[in-house]
Write a structure and sequence with these properties.
Blueprint: E1 7-25, E2 28-35, E3 38-45, H1 53-62, E4 68-77, E5 83-94, H2 114-119, H3 121-127, H4 129-151, E6 155-156, E7 162-163, E8 175-178, E9 183-187, H5 192-200, E10 205-213, E11 225-233, H6 238-257, E12 261-264, E13 273-276, E14 282-285, H7 286-294, H8 306-316, H9 327-338, E15 347-350, E16 373-377, E17 380-383
Parallel strand pairs: 3-5, 6-10, 14-15
Antiparallel strand pairs: 1-2, 1-4, 2-3, 4-5, 7-9, 8-9, 10-11, 12-13, 15-16, 16-17
Helix pairs in contact: 3-4, 8-9
Length: 384
């Protein structure tokens, strides 16, 4: 074991990375070098530098924060016990033409403007090491999902991204033009229809991880292009799919984080909340859940005055529903207020009314309802 303030001189090590900070002066300088998610300290000393005083002086006056350099030397520990490289040779590989923002006590490497962080993601990655973890975790999530489906004999497929007719969801598509065919086409808004065609063709278990494109608004939960995972399994019902979703998500959180409980920040600068993915997840029947929250029965679906009665309930709780005031929209307002907005831990909202889900399978036992579910986590829908 190497003692503090010593180095191992029987093995030469080469490293390369970007300089994030420079400390010291004169004959001893400390460089924090980062690369591939790791950091090492360079203790550049005149007495160790093989090329002599002039070359050392030229080097320390040439390299600056943001430059990419290479170094060869001996591994050891500083007097404070930090892993360090004692270089006898250093080389400027690529200069940084713009000075990096300096780190501040508040965090984010000196970049406080969120617009700058999002639009210059490369700069955000350079100065904020924690952002790299987001990319790494996303890759682990995709790999886990793919392995989960493959282990259960699902077949991964790729369906067309340019469609003659946009379908599979209700959304405004991006329009493009195929020159060779002289045909207007649409970027896909969902892969659902093609995946269902494959099931009809005899591929009983299929899934696709891919990009979708919707020409709509942008906010923290909506993006014009985004990645989804969509799967279909023949001969399985909504209970099977809920069990599978629960098993996959809880297992994924446990494997990636080491615990079923995670901390989540809903918005920048917002307070963190703890989310518990321990199975089994809570399941709420939509109509029963609303009735329990409001303390009264909802009108029957075949009641000719159902819309007027729902409006009275909304007025009672000072809720507003944007027109048109249809039964589906009125019910959706109640669901959002009394169920969705109160969910923190993973919760399935099940058994949607047929009037809200005309394409879903009718419930086998409960008239007017469907065998459909939506999974909500921290007030947001993550699976349907």
């Amino acid at each position: 074991m190497t003692e503090q303030g010593t180095k191992i001189e029987d093995k030469i090590v080469s490293v390369a990375g970007r300089i994030h900070s420079i400390r010291g002066q004169g004959k001893l300088l400390f460089y924090d070098l980062r690369g591939d998610g790791a950091k090492i300290q360079l203790m550049a000393s005149l007495k160790d530098y093989a090329a002599g005083p002039e070359a050392f002086d030229e080097l320390i006056h040439t390299v600056k924060r943001g430059d990419i350099i290479g170094a060869r030397g001996y591994v050891g520990k500083s007097k404070t016990g930090e892993l360090s490289l004692f270089p006898f040779e250093m080389l400027l590989l690529s200069p940084c033409l713009h000075m990096l923002p300096k780190a501040t006590a508040g965090g984010h490497g000196g970049i406080t403007n969120m617009e700058t962080r999002y639009r210059q993601r490369y700069l955000d990655l350079i100065v904020n090491s924690d952002i790299r973890q987001v990319f790494e975790r996303r890759s682990k999530i995709i790999n886990y999902v793919r392995k989960y489906f493959n282990d259960r004999h699902f077949l991964e497929v790729e369906t067309p991204m340019m469609n003659m007719i946009p379908g599979g969801a209700v959304a405004r598509p991006f329009v493009t033009f195929h020159n060779d065919l002289s045909l207007e086409m649409f970027m896909r808004i969902a892969p659902e229809l093609y995946l269902k065609m494959l099931v009809i063709g005899g591929l009983d278990r299929v899934y696709e991880i891919g990009r979708q494109f919707r020409n709509e608004g942008i906010d923290l939960t909506h993006n014009p292009e985004f990645t989804t995972c969509e799967s279909y399994e023949a001969y399985a019902d909504y209970n099977d799919l809920m069990d599978m979703t629960e098993e996959m998500l809880s297992g994924m959180v446990k494997e990636i984080t080491g615990s079923y409980k995670i901390k989540y920040q809903p918005k920048p600068n917002a307070e963190e909340v703890e989310i518990d993915f321990t199975p089994p997840f809570k399941r709420i029947s939509m109509i029963e859940g609303i009735e329990e929250k409001i303390g009264q029965k909802l009108p029957a679906f075949d009641d000719p005055k159902i819309e007027a009665k729902l409006e009275v309930i909304l007025e009672k709780f000072n809720l507003e529903c944007p027109p048109p005031l249809t039964t589906a929209r009125l019910l959706d307002t109640l669901v959002g207020e009394f169920l969705e907005d109160n969910i923190i831990h993973p919760t399935f909202i099940t058994e949607h009314p047929q009037i809200m889900s005309p394409l879903a399978k009718n419930h086998r036992d409960k008239e007017g309802l469907t065998e459909r579910f939506e999974l909500f986590v921290c007030k947001r829908e993550v699976s349907v």
